[in-house]
Amino acid sequence: MNGEKKPVLELQNVTTHYGPILMLQNLSVEIFPGEIVCLLGGNASGKTTTLKTILGMIVPTEGSVYLGGEKISGLNTMEIVKMGISMVPENRRLFKRMTVRENLEIGAFLRTNGKSLDEDMERVFTLFPRVKERLNQRAGTLSGGEQQMVAVGRALMADPKILLMDEPSMGLAPVLVEQTFEIIQQINEQGTTIFVVEQNANMALSIANRGYVLQTGKIVLADTAQGLLNDSMMRHAYLGEA
Amino acid sequence: MTLDHLKSSLKPGFYAGIVALFISVIGMIETFSNRDIIHGVFSISHTFLVIIALITGYFSATRAQRAGIRQHGIDRRAEVVNAIAGSLIAGFVMGLFLAVLVVVANLINLRPVFVNVTPKLIDLLTFGRPSLAGSIVPLSMFTIVSGLGGALSLFRSDIRRLIVTSLLWFAFAGLISEVIRLSLSRLGVNVARKFVTTRGLTPLGAAVMLALIFAIVYASQRLRDRQRRQPDQSSPARKRAVRFRSWGLIFVLLLVLPWVVGRVPSDVLVLVGIYVLMGFGLNIVVGKAGLLDLGYVAFFAVGAYSTAILTSADQLPNIQLSFWAALPFVIGITGLAGLLIGAPVLRMRGDYLAIVTLGFGEIARFLALSDWFSPVLGGAQGVVKIPNVVIAGIELADPEELYYLIMFFCLITLFISWRLEGSRVGRAWVAMREDEQVAESMGINTIYYKMLAFAMGAMIASLGGAVFAVKLNTVFPFSFSVNVSITVLSLIIIGGIGSIPGVLVGAFALVGLPELLREFDEYRLLLYGVAIIYMMIVRPEGLLPSVRRGRELHEDEMAQDAWGKPAEVIPVPANPELSG
Ligand SMILES: Nc1ncnc2c1ncn2[C@@H]1O[C@H](COP(=O)(O)OP(=O)(O)OP(=O)(O)O)[C@@H](O)[C@H]1O
Ligand SMILES: [Mg+2]
After folding, report:
1. Both B372 and B418 in a single domain?
2. Are B468 and B304 in contact (CB under 8 A)?
3. Which pLDDT belongs to residue B542?
4. Is the residue at B9 inside a domain?
5. Which residues of A touch B578 (CB under 8 A)?
6. Which domain-ending residue is among B122, B154, B186?
7. B212 and B83 in one domain?
8. Chain B contact for A238 (CB, 8 A cutoff)
9. Which of B257, B288, B424, B465 registers the highest number of CB atoms within 10 A of its CB?
C-alpha cells in the first residue's frame, strides 16, 4: 500500500550484532506516514533490539536506517531523537522518583521553543485525564495502568513524527490492554505514525495496518494485518489456534 | 511473673561493653582525657563513656518494656520496673567489661599486646582507684548511669527531648570550649578565666552555659510546638518573608562570626569554608549527576598550583599576575583538566569510575612531586611566596579577612547550585541518575551532561584550591593526599547528599572539630567510618537530607514500586510454544 508515498522510517537490510553474536539478520522494514505497523515475535526474537537499532543505541553492522529519506544509522541517540522519533520503552521505565510532571517534562527535553510545551501537555491530558490528576505524584507510586499512560504521554511530549512502542500490553490486565490499544489508535488518528512491537499478535493486528513477523532475528512474514490474520502459519504459531 | 523479658537487656549491654572496651584499648579514652568539658570534673573521655551508657540504658529500657508487654500485657507499674531493671542490667553488663579490664590489668601486664592499656587508663576508668578493688567503680558507675538512661525513657517525650537536646548542646559547647575561651578573652582575660580555662569550662561557666542552653532549647521548643498546634495559615508571601528573615539572620551571624571568635578559630573557619566549597562542588558531581568521583583532590590541587604559579613572585615562569587576574585562568585550566580526565573515564560504569578517579587523584600528587615538573611545580619544595589577595587596595592577610573571600566563593557556588536545581540541566542530571538508558532515549546526551557536571565540579574545587594557596602563601604536594577526597566525600555523605545545610554541618564536624580538637586527628578515620556506617544504616539520606534524596533512599517503604522491574514480566497468553 501507499505505493507512491515515501516511507517515514525505513530499515534497509539491517544486520546487528551483539559483540560477536549475530542478532538481526538482513532486516528490511518500511513504515509509511499515518500507518500503524506492528512487529510481532516471541521472546528473544530481537524485537527490542530492532527498536534500539532504530534509536541508535546499537549501530547496525550492515545496512542502514532512514528517517524521512535521511540516513540516521550512525548518528547518536540524541540526534536521532531530535529528528522526531520517540519511544515508549519496554516495561514503561518511568523515572520513578520523579513526579509525573517531571517525567512529562523530560519527554519534551529536546524541544527548546517552550511555547507548545503546554499544548502538548494538554494533548496528553485529553488522552489521559487521569494523568492530570496525578501530576505531582511520584511516578513510582502510580498503578501499572497509570504508569503506562505516563510512559505514552512522556513519549508524546517530544511531538514525534513516529512513535515506537515496545510491548505496550506487557503486564497489563486484559481490560487495560484493550484501552491501551484504543489509545494507540487515537494517537494515530491525530496524525502520529506508530511502530508497535508486540507479542500479543491478536491485539496488535486488530489495530495495525500492516505487520512483520520476526523469528530469531529474521523477518519471516510481512503482510497486511488482514493477510496475517488469515495466514495459516500465523494462526498456528501466534494467534493461539490449535 | 517471670523475668524472661529482662534477658532482652543483655544484648545492648553486651554491645555497649564491647564498644567501651574497644575505645579504651585503642587509647581513645586516654587521649581525650586531657580535655575537659568541665575543668577538673568531667573530661571528654568521661563524656564518651557516659553517653554510651545513657544510650544503652535508654535502649535496653525500651526493649525490656516492650518485651514485658509482649509477655505480661500492659501494666504501667510493671513497665516502670521493667525499664529501670532492664537498664540497670544492661549497664551492669557494660560495666562488667571494663571491670574485667581493670582486674586483668591488675593481675598481668597487658601492655606488650595492648600498648594503650596504661596505668593512666586504669586510673581513669576507676576514678583514681586503680587497685583490684577499684574494678567495682566502673561496674557501679555504669550501672547507675545506664539506669539514668533508662529513667529517661519514662519521661514524657517532650521533656525527654528537652533534656537530651540540652545535654547534647552542652557537650558540644564543652567540645568547642577553646573557641568560647578565645572569644570571651576578647572581652577581657579575667572575665574569660572565670568561665573557661584552656582545659574546659569552669564549674561556674558550665552552670551558666547549661542554664543558657536549657533556656534557649526550651524557648525554641515552645515556639515550634505552638506553630505545630496552629498550622501556619499565613499567606505564602508571609511565609517567604519569615524564611527570608531567618536566612538573613543566619547570614548576618556568619558575617560577624570571625570577629566574634578571633584569629585562631577564624583560621579554622577558612579551612572549613574551603571544604564547604568543595562539598558544594562534589555535590554536583556525586549528588546531582551520580558520578562517584574519588579523585576530587586532583582539581583542588590543579586550582592551588595554577594559582601559585600564576601569582608567585618566586616561580620560574615568573608571571606574577594578581589573584584576580589569575582567577579566570585558574578556573579555565582546572575546568579543562576536568574535561581531560572526564573524557576517557566518564564512559565507565559507576564502580570503575570510582577506581579510576581514585587513581587520577594520586597521579596528580605524584606529578606535583616529580622531578620532571619540578622546575615549574617546585617538586617537594612546592611553590612559595604566593602573595596575598588584594581587594580595592585592602590586603587580605588575616584569616578574619580571608574568611570573607571563601564565603564569597561559597555564596556564588551556592547560587549556581540553586539555579541548577530546577533547571533543564538539573532535570537531565536527575533523569540520568535514575535510568541512564531511558534518559538517553529521551534525547539526553548523557556523556555531555556528565562532562558538564565533572567540569563544574572541577572549577568549583579550583576556587577552593586558589583560596588554599593564598591562605598558606605556599603550596606543597603533601597537602593533596587522598584524604582530601575522602573528607569531602564523607562530609557530603554525612550531611546528606544534595543538601546544602548538610554540607555546612558535615564540614564543621569533619574538618572544623578535628582542627579545634587535635586529639580527634588520630581517630579521624575511625570516626568517619563509624559515622558513615551509622548514616548508611540509620539515615541513608544524611543528617539534613535534600527532599529528593529522601524520596530515593526510602523508596522501598513506598507501595507499588514493583513496576518496571524487568524480572516481573508477565507472559502474554496469546503466545504459545513457538518463540523466535
Ligand atoms: N546487550 C546485549 N548483549 C548481548 N546480548 C543481548 C543484549 N541485549 C539483548 N541481547 C540478547 O538478544 C536477544 C534478543 O533480545 P531482545 O531484547 O531484542 O528480545 P525481544 O524480542 O525484545 O524479547 P522480549 O519479547 O522478551 O522482550 C536475547 O537473546 C537477548 O538475550
Ligand atoms: Mg523486548
Report:
1. yes
2. yes
3. 54
4. yes
5. 42, 236-238
6. B154
7. no
8. yes
9. B465
pLDDT in the model for residue B233? 62
**Average pLDDT value over all residues in chain B:** 83
Decide: A43 in ligand 1 pocket, CB within 6 A.
Answer: yes
B164 and B147 within one domain: no
B-contacting residues of A 47-106, CB under 8 Å?
Answer: 55, 57, 76-78, 81-82, 86-87, 89-98, 102, 105-106
Ligand 1 centroid distance, CA of A49 (Å): 6
Grid coordinates in use for B401?
A: 579577612
Domain identity same for B195 and B344: no
Q: Are both B144 and B210 inside the same structural domain?
A: no
Same-domain pairing of B73 and B210: no
Q: Are residues B28 and B101 in the same domain?
A: yes
B575 to A238: CB separation less than 8 angstroms, yes or no: yes
DSSP string, chain A: ---SSPPSEEEEEEEEEETTEEEEEEEEEEE-TT-EEEEEE-TTSSHHHHHHHHTTSS--SEEEEEETTEE-BTB-HHHHHHTTEEEE-TT----TTSBHHHHHHHHTTT----TTHHHHHHHHHHH-HHHHHTTTSBGGGS-HHHHHHHHHHHHHTT--SEEEEE-TTTT--HHHHHHHHHHHHHHHHTT-EEEEEES-HHHHHHH-SEEEEEETTEEEEEEEHHHHHH-HHHHHHTS---
**pLDDT per residue as tens digits for the range A105-114:** 888 888 765 5
Predicted TM-score (pTM) of this structure: 0.81
Task: Assess if residue A236 is contained within a domain.
Answer: yes
Residue B27 lies in domain? 1-154
Residue B202 has pLDDT above 80, yes or no: yes
| Domain presence at residue A24 | yes
> Has residue A20 been placed in a domain?
yes
Mutate-to-test residue for ligand 1 from A14, A15, A18, highest number of ligand atoms within 8 A of CB: A18
Residue A16 covered by a domain: yes
Question: For residue A38, what are the β-bridge partners?
Answer: A196, A211
Mean pLDDT of B210-227: 87
Residue A197 pLDDT grade (very low, low, confident, very high; cuts 50, 70, 90): very high
Report if residue B77 sits inside a domain: yes
Overall number of domains in chain A: 1
pLDDT for the residue B329: 94
**Using one digit for the tens of pLDDT, what is the confidence trace for B424-451?**
898 899 888 888 888 988 888 888 999 9
Where residue A8 sits, what CATH number does that domain have?
3.40.50.300
- Domain residues for the domain of A62 are 1-84+208-242
Instruction: Report how many domains make up chain B.
Output: 3
Contact assignment for B427 to A45 by CB distance below 8 Å: no
Ligand number, closest to the Cα atom of B571: 1
